[in-house]
Write a structure and sequence with these properties.
Blueprint: H1 5-29, H2 36-43, H3 45-51, H4 58-76, H5 81-108
Helix pairs in contact: 1-2, 1-5, 2-4, 3-4, 4-5
Length: 109
């Protein structure tokens, strides 16, 4: 089996970049101040969840990643709990999963 290094790099880092951009757009749309580094940390919440050695199903790991992003948003911003802290990670994580599965992966084949 041939190893495709560019495909591995795109599939490893493009979702993080995509989520970072989506979080930046969402925070700017809601007029919430956030630094770029904090936004990268919030976008990487899914990576933090995947490091934990628990055998979680895909759907449950996505829910835990959204919960971790909610916690990090309350930690790094002064956003209101409802609608900002609840809806921003929900919309960003689900749209990122959709764009990764149906746009990014077919482009790398």
């Amino acid at each position: 089996m041939k190893t495709n290094i560019p495909q591995i790099l795109v599939l490893a880092f493009a979702p993080l970049v995509l989520r970072t951009v989506l979080y930046l757009v969402a925070f700017k749309a809601r007029s919430i101040e956030i630094k770029l580094l904090s936004c990268i940390i919030i976008a990487g919440a899914g990576y933090l969840v995947s490091v934990v050695p628990l055998p979680l199903p895909f759907g449950l790991s996505r829910v835990v990643a959204i919960g971790a992003a909610m916690f990090l948003i309350t930690r790094y911003t002064k956003a209101e709990v409802f609608p900002d802290v609840i809806l921003i990670p929900l919309v960003v994580e689900l749209s990122s999963a959709f764009l990764t599965d149906y746009v990014l992966i077919p482009l790398t084949r």
